[in-house]
Structure formats: structure tokens, C-alpha cells
Amino acid sequence: MNWEKLPLGPLQTNCYVLANSKKNCIIVDPGEEGVRLTNHLQQRKLTPQAILLTHAHFDHIGAVDYIRNAYNIPVYLHNKEKNWLIDPTLNGSHLFMMGEIKIKEADHHFSSECEMTVGDFIFEVFETPGHSPGSVSFYFKDDGVVVSGDALFQGSIGRTDLPGGDHTQLMKSIHDKLLVLPEETQVLPGHGQPTTIGEEMDSNPFLNGF
């Protein structure tokens, strides 16, 4: 599996396109710029099979309906944020005055941690709340990759001052679900540059002493 990072929208939220040798792909967090994302997929001759959402804050969901409608593919989200896609107050677009974002509900909802097969892709869903109640991370064990959303960043962690945020819960999520992965695991965060579990264990100041 190969992956590409596309920072999209005013907050430069990382959208990830994870593709296999058959040119099928899944899209994680299409936050904005649906036309640009579609053009990218066409240039790469990729066929999307699904949209996965690490959580439902506005900067991660803005292009969901554009891509869903363009390719007629399903959207996956944790059920704790089931209503966030249709509610600008919950997804934060109203709070941040970014223009109210309302999109259709997800087609499928995670209710617990599980291993999933979506199209050609097999991955594990980790519940990693703290940044938001329904935050999840997607772990592609065979490829040594975890998409962490806004839980863990290079040298930082997700903010917890938004509605539903909980710092203690986030630290527990990072410690119990992410730092237990092999140190060489690549971490693909929702913002900024990719990192590894080992790098964050060694140098992330927010994790020191936890």
C-alpha cells in the first residue's frame, strides 16, 4: 500500500489517499477542496472505495459529500459523532465562523474497536477519544501505518479545549492505543508532518513522563 498526504482547506488539514497496486484507494478525512482532490485522483487514475473519518470536526469533513457523490462510495464514522455531520454547532463550523457545514450522515458507524475490511483494504479501528468523543485511529498493521487524526502529532497532541474534549482521556488514548504500537510505525496525523511512534516516544514534550 502507498499513501499520499494532501493538506486541504484553510487549516491545511491532512487528507490521506491510501492506494494499492490495483489503483484502488480509500480516502481519509477529505476536509476541503473537493475539486482539487478529485483532480488528484483522476491524475493518479485511482478508484476510491470508501471515505474514512477520524472524527467529524468541520476541517476534516468539508469535501465529504463532494467525493461521496462523485464516486458513489460509503462514508464511515464513529457513532458517538453520528449527528455531527449535519449539525454546524457540533462539528464546529458555526463556532469558528467558517461557513456552516452540513453534510449527509455517514453510511456506516463504528460502535466499537474492530478489524474491518473495506473494499481491498484491511485495517483496525482504534477508539482514541480525547480530542473529540468519537475520535478514532486507523491502523494498517501489514503496512506499519496508523492514521491518528487529531490525537497525536509530530511533537504535539490534539487540542482538548473544544466541546467534548478531555485531556486526561486523550493522554490515555495515546498511551494505551498508539504508543504500544511498534516504534517504527509511521504516524499520519491530521495536521503537520508524518512521524513515527518511536520518534514521539523519544522527543514529544507532551508525552514526557506520562
Automatic annotation (TrEMBL):
- The region called Disordered is annotated at 188-210
Record domain Metallo-beta-lactamase: where: 12-191
Which SMART domains does the entry mention? Answer: Lactamase_B (SM00849)
SUPFAM superfamilies for this protein: Metallo-hydrolase/oxidoreductase
Q: Which residues cross the membrane?
A: none
Q: Which InterPro entries match?
A: MBL_Glyoxalase_II (IPR051453), Metallo-B-lactamas (IPR001279), RibonucZ/Hydroxyglut_hydro (IPR036866)
The source's domain of life comes to Bacteria
- Identify this protein by name: Hydroxyacylglutathione hydrolase
